[in-house]
Amino acid sequence: MPQLIPFFFVNQVLFNFALLVLLIYLFSKFLLPRFVRLFKSRLHVDSL
């Protein structure tokens, strides 16, 4: 049924966009601050 092809691509684009937004949120909320704390502690230990 070729009339459903545009809806398939719109569905794929919306799902991937939502996944990208979720990944950016998770990285900025959990992963990146952990790396910042790690590098700050390394700098602090290195300066002693």
Automatic annotation (TrEMBL):
Instruction: Describe its membrane topology.
Output: Single-pass membrane protein
Matching entries from InterPro entries are given as:
ATP_synth_su8_fun (IPR009230)
Q: Does the entry feature the keyword Ribosomal protein, yes or no?
A: no
One Pfam family of this protein, by short name? Answer: Fun_ATP-synt_8
Question: What cellular component terms from Gene Ontology apply here?
Answer: mitochondrial membrane; proton-transporting ATP synthase complex
GO MF annotation terms: proton-transporting ATP synthase activity, rotational mechanism
* Alphabetical keyword list: Ion transport, Membrane, Mitochondrion, Transmembrane, Transmembrane helix, Transport
Membrane spanning segments where? 12-32
Task: Name where it's found.
Answer: Mitochondrion membrane
What is the protein's major site of localization?
mitochondrion
Q: What is this protein called?
A: ATP synthase protein 8
